[in-house]
UniProtKB/TrEMBL annotation:
The lineage of its organism: Eukaryota, Metazoa, Spiralia, Lophotrochozoa, Mollusca. It comes from Magallana gigas (Pacific oyster). This is B box-type domain-containing protein.
Length: 137
């Protein structure tokens, strides 16, 4: 996020931390402070980086249509799609497990309640029998 300003001499902010930036990645088209260069390079290892001083930056259009699509982009898109599929499978598996556990507890509680209901019915019948026996005496 860039530091907003109306004065030309104000610093341009680093995209990662908002500190004043002195460097620019020509390939990714982002401003970086000295401390964030290694973070940027480490988190985007699949792309080459051309880190230069801000005064030596080369600005390109940011629209993907205007950029030359490289095999790296296609590879990244394919890997992203595979990861998305794996993620969806894992989420589905988790929801299936949660659903199974919920159904188990529902069935377990129903069985426990049915057992308790049977015990109560027997107690009511025994109580009625005892009251009738007591009244007949």
């Amino acid at each position: 996020m860039a530091i907003s300003s109306t004065r030309a001499q104000d610093a341009i902010g680093c995209l990662l931390c908002d500190m004043p930036s002195q460097q620019f990645c020509n390939n990714c088209q982002i401003n970086l402070c000295v401390d964030c260069i290694s973070i940027h390079v480490d988190t985007s290892k699949s792309v080459s980086h051309d880190i230069v001083h801000l005064k030596n930056k080369t600005t390109r259009l940011k629209y993907h249509k205007a950029l030359k699509v490289t095999s790296e982009c296609a590879k990244t898109d394919s890997e992203t799609e595979k990861l998305r599929d794996i993620w969806h499978q894992e989420v589905d598996a988790i929801f299936n497990k949660v659903g199974s556990v919920a159904q188990f507890f529902k069935d377990y509680k129903l069985a426990a309640l049915t057992t308790e209901q049977s015990k109560i019915k027997k107690l009511v019948q025994d109580s009625i029998h005892t009251v009738r026996k007591t009244n007949s005496c």
